């Protein structure tokens, strides 16, 4: 257990073999954080302090670029939202749940994902000696160096001004890919 003092978005866990899932802790405005979860062409962003979540299913964007907020009834990802909890899982044994009351989120991986993921949550291979592995394959015992190595964006205390997307039929696509805080392309 360690205190994450980073003011940047960091990669918590990613399947680097099959690209089955990605979990990112995003730093939002006003010292708030969100959890970005990607599985099966579906992205869910969870805002624990606000007790809300947003969902996007990118498999539908080719057919109709206007429709981004989709029901997950036809998806291979399951989502349950209660009064103070949200749980997201897929059929391949990846589960992310957040309890808003306690501001606690958990990531659970089935045995199928043994040793294929890495990030701030470790390597998931039951080997204590390689939990502090950085993306370049080297190891550290320095928390700051470890945290910085898993940052997914360049960050600074000054917010950058973003240019608005041109108003076209694909304006929503542009916004999701280039303006949303969780986007890796931002």
TrEMBL record:
InterPro entries: VWF_type-D. Pfam families: VWD. Signal peptide: none annotated. Residues 1-166 form the VWFD domain. PANTHER family: AGAP008810-PA, VITELLOGENIN DOMAIN-CONTAINING PROTEIN. This is APLP protein. It comes from Prunella fulvescens.
